[in-house]
Write a structure and sequence with these properties.
This protein has 357 residues and is α/β, with parallel strands linked by helices. The strands form two sheets. It has an eight-stranded mixed β-sheet, with helices on both faces. A five-stranded parallel β-sheet has the order 3-2-1-4-5, with helices on both faces. A hairpin with a 5-residue loop joins strand 8 and strand 9. Helix 1 runs parallel beside helix 6 and helix 10 runs antiparallel to helix 11. The longest helix has 17 residues. The radius of gyration is 22 Å and the shape is elongated. The protein starts with 10 loop residues before the first strand and ends with a helix.
């Protein structure tokens, strides 16, 4: 567990035979599945309470998952995007990450087989693998970490996301028509004190839609400094509430300009226009406040290609006059004169103050 960083973990993936339970399911003489180890179920529940998802990657007959669903639903419901097949574990983990919409590096595999752990480590170098005996240390790594309301609801929200995905697959129409049918609403406003922990969490845990990778400590420091404002975005649709899905820090210390050292959104809203709508709201609010230029700090990574594309589509280009900028970051800027881009037509955006009135 040396060097283990719990902040980067979004999902723990569990093997079945020899890990979740003692025996080999396909060798059972009946359809009765082995009894899960109580300490493993307790660990899964403890992780869920801290906002960490759980999934399954088992090299076994697919029928085992059907038997788990039918015979032990109270166990099956603990797992999202499970993979039970004869494919390599590394491929199962790739599919889990894709289904959950998270980076594969955000996964941890718990597996009793040294061979399976070695296969994953060789083909997915960013994934941490643990033996079942390491689980107590895994839980200890999360002790003391602040748990936000969004963290406690994360497993429920991902289950709701599975429902959204299933409805989308059944929907008879275009992707845009489906998004319009979802009746998505984005509300944006200044962050209240109780929303700051969630903003810090987004800064630490988001990668795909994160402009700068600003650390939580630095974000907390800047939020408390003069001339800075923190904004958050919430989203709902016909399936329920997403919670706080976006955070943006605005620096208003330079005359005539709004600078955004951090724009971060949950990967759960990728592909739904929320990132664009949040960005465009900030640009419009900056213009209303009298700013003539809008700037965003960008630190390019292998993960945030979507954010880079969004900023370019919004008309932001690299600024040359950025003294003191970090060597691995750039400042992108655009004028606020003329027409500004608009949110996608299927997403209703409003100020939180107006929505609460």
């Amino acid at each position: 567990m040396t060097g283990f960083d719990p902040e980067g973990v979004k999902c723990v993936v569990w093997d079945l035979d020899g890990t979740l339970w003692d025996d080999v399911a396909v060798e059972s003489a009946t359809d009765e599945l082995p009894t899960p180890r109580p300490e493993m179920l307790a660990a899964i529940d403890a992780l869920a309470a801290r906002g960490v998802l759980s999934s399954i990657a088992s090299r076994s007959a697919p029928a085992v998952l059907d038997r788990l669903t039918g015979g032990r639903p109270e166990v099956r419901e603990r797992f999202l995007a499970p993979q039970v097949s004869w494919q390599d574990k590394s491929e199962s983990l790739r599919r889990i990450a894709k289904d959950l919409g998270i980076a594969v590096q955000a996964l941890v595999l718990v597996d009793d087989s040294p061979y399976e752990r070695a296969e994953v480590e060789a083909l997915l170098p960013g994934v941490r693998t643990l033996a079942p005996t390491d689980v107590p240390e895994l839980l200890a790594a999360f002790e003391g970490r602040e748990v936000t309301p969004e963290s406690r609801e994360r497993v429920h929200r991902y289950r709701t996301e599975e429902t959204r995905r299933a409805e989308g697959e059944r929907f008879q129409g275009t992707r845009e028509e489906f998004l319009r049918w979802c009746a998505m609403r984005l509300t944006v406003g200044a962050a209240s004190p109780d929303e700051i922990p969630r903003a810090l969490e987004l800064a630490a845990r988001t990668h795909r839609l994160n402009s700068s990778g600003l650390t939580p400590d630095r974000l907390r420091e800047l939020t408390a400094s003069a001339g800075h404002e923190l904004y958050t975005a919430r989203m709902t649709d016909r399936f329920g509430a997403y919670g706080i899905i976006g955070a943006a820090l605005v620096d208003r210390t330079a005359p005539g300009a709004w600078s955004v050292p951090l724009l971060a959104l949950s990967c759960r809203v990728a592909g739904r226009g929320a990132a664009a709508a949040f960005l465009f709201w900030l640009m419009e609010r900056a213009r209303q406040a009298g700013a003539e230029e809008f700037r965003v700090t960008l630190r390019p990574t292998d993960a945030n290609l979507e954010m880079r594309i969004l900023l370019r589509q919004a008309g932001l280009r690299r600024a040359d006059d950025t003294p003191g900028a970090a060597p691995d970051a750039a400042v992108l800027a655009r004028s606020l004169h003329g027409d500004l881009p608009k949110a996608p037509p299927y997403l209703h955006v409003s100020d939180r103050e107006d929505a609460e009135a």
